[in-house]
Each structure stands twice: as C-alpha cells, then as structure tokens.
Design brief:
single chain; alpha/beta; nine-stranded mixed sheet; 31% strand
Length: 185
Amino acid sequence: MNRKFDIVVAHDSNNGIGYANQLAWHLPEDMAFFKQLTMGKHYDHKPNIVIMGRKTYESIPQAFRPLKNRINIVLTQSKFNVSDNDTIIATSIDNALFQANTLIQSGDANQIFCIGGKTVYEAMISNQYCRYLYVTVLNNEYQCDAFFPEYNQIFERINCSEKQTSTSGITYQFQLWQSKQFKTN
Ligand SMILES: NC(=O)c1ccc[n+]([C@@H]2O[C@H](COP(=O)([O-])OP(=O)(O)OC[C@H]3O[C@@H](n4cnc5c(N)ncnc54)[C@H](OP(=O)(O)O)[C@@H]3O)[C@@H](O)[C@H]2O)c1
C-alpha cells in the first residue's frame, strides 16, 4: 500500500501560522489555492481527505464546515461531537491515517492532505509517509501565537512560484517541498 500524505500550510516570514485560533492574515488567493488543491479535480466521484486538529476545525466558520467535497477527519481526544455525517473523528494520528488509507484502499477517496494546525503539523511532519509540503510563504511577519516547525533540514524545495502580490497588498510565494525521508510503503 502506498500510504503517502501531503501537508498544506501558509506561514509568514517567521513561520507564524495563526493567532488566537485564526489565521493572522486575509489572503483570498491562498484560500483559492487551498480549495483547488485539497478538493482536486475529480471530487465528484472520488473526494480527497483532509485531516485536521479539533481547534482548526472549530476555527472554520460554521457555514463552511465540514470543508465541502472533501472527507473531513478531525483529530480529538475529548468528547467533541460533530453534527454532520461527512466528518470522521480520529483519536490519534495513526488512527486518522488508518481510517484515511482504508477509504483510499476501498476506492472511496483519492489522496490525503494534513491541513493543521500547529500540534497536528508538529506530529505529522516527521512521519515517514509525509511526502510533500505545499507551502505558501508570506513575505512579511505577522502577530502570531502558533508556528510551523522548521523543515529546511528534512525537506528540499523542488518548486517555487514567482513572488506575487495580492489585491490586499500581501506579497507571497507558492512553494513545493519534498521530504528527504519519504518512503513509499
Ligand atoms: N496558516 C495555516 O496554514 C494554518 C492551517 C491550519 C491552522 N492554522 C492555525 O493553527 C492554529 C491552531 O493550532 P493548534 O495547535 O492550536 O490546534 P490544532 O492542531 O488545530 O488542534 C489541536 C487539537 O487537536 C486534537 N489533537 C491534536 N493532536 C492530536 C493527536 N495526536 N491525537 C488526537 N487528537 C489530537 C486535540 O483536540 P482535543 O483538545 O479535542 O483533544 C488538540 O487540542 C490556529 O491559529 C489556526 O488558525 C494555520
């Protein structure tokens, strides 16, 4: 079985990813990229899976969660309940990956993205099945209380867009990093 998964993150020039359980910036271009990447092209017959921590799930406005056309897996060890049938609860990273890979094996899902937040990134980035980091790097530093771990040593950058400036004036870049320790099975 090919048990790969990829991480998607946007961080600022200091690896900051959020403040007070929210993103620390408003960057619609990155939200569009995130949606397109995680939804994929074939979601109508095989959705992708997004794995996230309970706090990140709760940070998504109610009207937008679960993230549509994707299978949402929420990590929690508390008695957290979700009211919809499209969200799966997992009590550990291993359990989340097991449930996700079972769905892929049975032909019910396509690929797996880890979408944060901080504690989940920290736990999953060193997993041997972590393949790519899709990183949106914002050029400025924002007030943050959550940070993405250092990754330059265990990942190498294999793609990088031109610097772009959003309509709101934020300069950013899409980067793709590949794990040096990724194993295919
Ligand atoms: N910039 C970005 O790309 C990006 C993306 C996502 C999130 N964020 C930011 O990240 C911040 C949130 O990060 P966070 O670390 O506070 O929260 P989080 O990782 O989203 O959620 C943490 C919660 O997830 C559950 N959890 C985590 N690891 C687990 C494990 N191994 N097994 C079972 N459950 C587990 C626990 O829930 P229980 O307490 O219920 O047990 C834990 O309290 C926010 O500021 C958010 O905006 C940024």
